[in-house]
Design goal:
By secondary structure, the protein is α+β, with helices and mostly antiparallel strands. Helices cover 14% and strands 34% of the residues. It starts with 5 loop residues before the first strand and ends with a helix.
Length: 337
């Protein structure tokens, strides 16, 4: 097997994409290409201290910059682009989190309108110890300090939407986008259905860590050095973003209200069992009901995202997505040597 091509991309400040769809590709890549990327945090690097309030240093809607898009040669509607995360590493020794007025799960918003005043705007700067793999929380209103383990992930991964749509990089939907699931970490493969020629893949929104649900609307936001392998599955449809790890198969669904996002992820998992594991629909429905794990991804974005995941050890010994995840794991291991 020949060594994969490695493309290094370090965008200048004016070279990021802010949408999925509507942005020209920064490069054309062949399937099997390794992308060595720098991604900026969701604030475009402008929140650097506790004095840098989002409302003052950021300009809406220019939030959540994406590295890309990349035109994947040969990708056509009805195919699937696979993105395997070889490594996700913080690019700085600090990360930022905030509260933002009229945004988050425990405050008034423009769509959940109340007479309550908006929560005050605050910034927390988290110190990252990349050698010890920790992130340090320092409280504003007491002397509490707590170290949490680093768990780097990408909140936003996606392709151009269908039907000529252009979607803000803040929005998750069937094309992927700002799903904000902690499942999108090193070692997993993300499967995205292709909607336009070339797919137009982008990613960004690195998080040093994030709890399930992203309750306040903002994770531990961090610039990242990320390496991915991009592959193409011809004639394999993926209606909603899927993730495969060494231990689980994982479906996602994004919508409002939250129960519709839950239904989408559960239905996609049932259909995955039918397509690749030999279940009938009713048997898949029954089995998934008793075996599924259903973590929340986000309950704060324009659409909410739910996850449905099943342990591979409980499934029949069948191949899914043509066994691509296992092959990409081998390629990733060779890259790290």
């Amino acid at each position: 097997m020949s060594d994969p091509r490695i493309l290094t991309v370090r965008p200048a400040p004016d070279e990021y994409a802010w949408t999925f769809g509507g942005a020209p590709p920064v490069a054309r890549i062949a399937p099997g290409t390794v992308l060595d990327l720098y991604t900026e945090d969701c604030f475009a690097g402008r929140v650097r201290s506790e004095k840098d309030l989002v409302s003052q240093v950021c300009e809406f809607p220019f939030l959540n910059p994406q590295t890309g898009p990349f035109h994947v040669e040969g990708a056509e509607p009805g195919d699937t682009v696979a993105v395997h995360f070889v490594s996700i590493e913080p690019a700085r020794d600090w990360a930022a989190s905030t509260t933002v007025p009229l945004f988050g799960a425990l405050t008034s918003t423009t769509t959940t309108a109340t007479l309550q005043p908006p929560l005050p705007e605050k910034v927390w700067i988290w110190q990252l110890d990349r050698d010890r793999r920790t992130a340090l929380f320092r409280a504003h209103d007491s002397d509490i300090e707590i170290e949490l383990p680093l768990d780097p992930m990408h909140g936003t991964v996606g392709v151009a939407p269908a039907n000529l749509e252009v979607r803000s990089a803040l929005v998750p939907d069937a094309h992927g986008g700002n799903m904000d699931t902690p499942e999108m970490r090193t070692g997993v493969t993300c499967y995205l259905g292709v909607n336009v020629d070339g797919a137009l893949l982008s990613l960004g929104d690195g998080h040093a860590r994030q709890g399930e649900g992203e309750t306040c609307g903002v994770a531990v936001e961090c610039a990242m050095h990320t390496m991915v392998i991009v592959e193409l599955l011809k004639d394999v449809a993926t209606p909603w973003p899927r993730i495969e790890s060494d231990t689980h198969i994982i479906s996602t669904g994004s919508a409002r209200p939250l129960e519709d996002a839950f239904r989408i992820s559960q239905l996609d998992l049932v259909r995955w069992l039918v397509r690749d594991y030999g279940f009938s629909e009713s048997d898949a429905y029954q089995f998934a009901t008793q075996a599924v794990e259903s973590p929340l991804a986000n309950v704060c974005d324009t659409n909410y995202t739910c996850v449905a995941k099943l342990r591979k050890e409980w499934l029949p010994a069948r191949e899914t997505h043509r066994g691509l995840h296992a092959r990409l794991r081998e390629t990733a291991a060779a890259l790290r040597r």
